[in-house]
Amino acid sequence: MIDPDSIGTISRIPRFSGVSQQALTWLAEQLSRRSYAKGAMLFLEGEDSSHLWLVESGAVKVFRSLESGRELILGIFRFGDAIGEVAVIDGTGYPASASAHEDATVWVMPRQAYFTYLERFEGTAIALIRDLTLRMRVMQRRMEDLGGGGVEYRIARVLQALCAKSPDQPGPVYLPIPLTRQDLADMVGARIETVIRIMSRWQKDGLIGQDDRGLCVRDRRAMAQLAGGS
Description:
Blueprint: H1 4-11, H2 21-30, E1 32-36, E2 41-43, E3 51-57, E4 60-65, E5 71-77, E6 82-83, H3 85-90, E7 97-100, E8 104-110, H4 111-120, H5 124-147, H6 151-163, E9 173-174, H7 181-188, H8 192-204, E10 208-211, E11 214-217, H9 220-226
Antiparallel strand pairs: 1-8, 2-7, 3-6, 3-8, 4-5, 4-7, 9-11, 10-11
């Protein structure tokens, strides 16, 4: 029996916004839930792309392992984000690895079921194109950020992007996901010592803060200026 709550949750995923009730019911039958503790691997780089992954709760980190032994974090994905979609479409292995950045629950859809969904229900291909186009733009900006500017600029770009969806109002803006200094170093391709030094200076200057709720941006305008915005 299909859980009505599952259908309601699936309907809130941007990837499935606007699809018919029939399509939502079908998706609820095809998607299976898996839970992962923080640090657990979902899949490894190069593995067969047999499934599409969708984040239901928590956060999932997608990263590549460098020859130096360090990680380069390509993105941290949250509710409704699809992972491994391009690899599922073209049939290649996953281009990166994925692990639970924090305790996470994900939906998993087999590759063949994914193609059946695209073929059976009207409007799904358009939603796919829209979502992949947005993803490509985000990844392009990500590569530009990694390739340009100093470490301070790259950290500011990451923090600004994470705070972008929060309302522009007075007071500190807390990051929606927990990030350690090592996480930030892996996201901007820098040494952790450099990141610690920059973050310590920013905290002393009142630009950022850290408390029981996590890391926050205290001066959003100054952060935007560091990131090259207005």
